[in-house]
Amino acid sequence: MGKSDTSIFHPLTLAILTVSDRRTHEDDTSGDLLKNLATEAGHQVVERKLLPNNRYQLRACVSQWIAGNEVQVVLINGGTGFSEGNSTVEALQPLFDREVPGFGELFRQLSYQQLGSSALQSGAIGGLANQTLVIAVPGSGNACELAWHELIQPQLDSRTRPCSFYSHLKPVEAQRETNLCKN
Q1: pLDDT values of the chain reduced to their tens digit, one per residue, 183 residues
Q2: Rounded distance, CA 11 to CA 158, Å?
Q3: What is the set of domains in the chain, with CATH numbers?
Q4: Which of 31, 70, 104, 141 has minimal Cβ neighbours within 10 Å of its Cβ?
């Protein structure tokens, strides 16, 4: 996978959502990691939230971002595992206009190299909804870092060839300062 030397980098607007019954804003290390990685890559984090493992709250939050005009990419960490109560993947599927099956497949393949057969229980999903890319990965820092470097960052970069998700995303006219929500 390469990058075009003549293309211009186009920063995107992102929302980051942590799904956890245990994390707080003070110890949301995976959310912090994703925010830092996105910002270092040149993107703008315009929303950030932390929600419990509740599929209906998750759907409501993500639906607002999908329906709005400000967020081009939603990055979700947590609530994707096989444990009872985790429902991020199931909550997101009905929202997608088009699922990106390769995202989960490639994530599990990469995870298998580190975790062996335990990767079978790694939930990860991606999809497009109203020209918004929605990606969910496990809540561990290692999983977030792996997904970002190997899959997410290259696909958010408009210069990635032969293709990236940039051309599938809604245009955003006005960008604003980061808003750390208390929800």
Answers
A1: 566 655 899 999 999 999 999 999 999 999 999 999 999 999 999 999 999 999 999 999 999 999 999 999 999 999 998 888 899 999 999 999 999 999 999 999 999 999 999 988 888 999 999 999 999 999 999 999 999 999 999 999 999 999 999 999 999 864 444 333 444
A2: 8
A3: 2-167 (3.40.980.10)
A4: 141
